[in-house]
Amino acid sequence: MDTAMRNGARFLRLKTMASAALAALLLGACSSDDGDEGDESSGAEFPLAASEVCDGVLSGAAAGDLDALAERDRFGEMDGEGNASVDLAQYLVRLRSTNSREQEYCTIGMDTASPFMRLAFGWDERDGDFDDAAQDVLVYSSGSYAYALDRGALIYFPCDIPDRTAPGLLRARLGMPYGLEDPDKAMSVLNSASRAIADGLGCLEGAGLPEGRPGRAPE
Length: 219
Description:
Elements: H1 2-26, H2 53-56, H3 61-70, E1 76-79, H4 88-96, E2 103-109, E3 117-124, E4 138-140, E5 145-149, E6 152-158, E7 169-175, H5 183-201
Antiparallel strand pairs: 1-2, 2-3, 3-7, 4-5, 5-6, 6-7
Helix pairs in contact: 3-5
């Protein structure tokens, strides 16, 4: 009986440590905590459907495309400040008040050892001339310019809002640590998130972000 109790206690400690490690890796950070006091609400349980993750910015085809990319239908999330849930309204306040080229919005995780996907937005000073973009990329019909690379995708779209005097071009970025196996689906996810950001800032009408999946631009 004593041996069984000791083995049971050891199993519970290991399970708690594993949950804490998953939460830390979802944040993309290292932790020195030994995990004796795991937080079951940290996001390690991966409770969210694709349509719920990142405060619901993925709709229609984009939610299904995230499921297809991840080959599962439940996720966890972290915001750019390390919180275990994402608040679109709070993020929009920060985005309005910064001139930064990148403010991380949402990290999407699943039951693997590191984040699956990151979404970030920021302001860019370009005037719409993208002739100097990287070669050998897939270009899409979204915003002013959109393209996919080996490990992610980017969309640049105009976003003029009354309370900003800085350049009104927003840069949306999707990053995938393990590489981009299906750029069409990744661009669908990024475009949907970009539409939600543009709508929240009041610039969706002139952003050039299509509904549904963006098509590849003609060569």
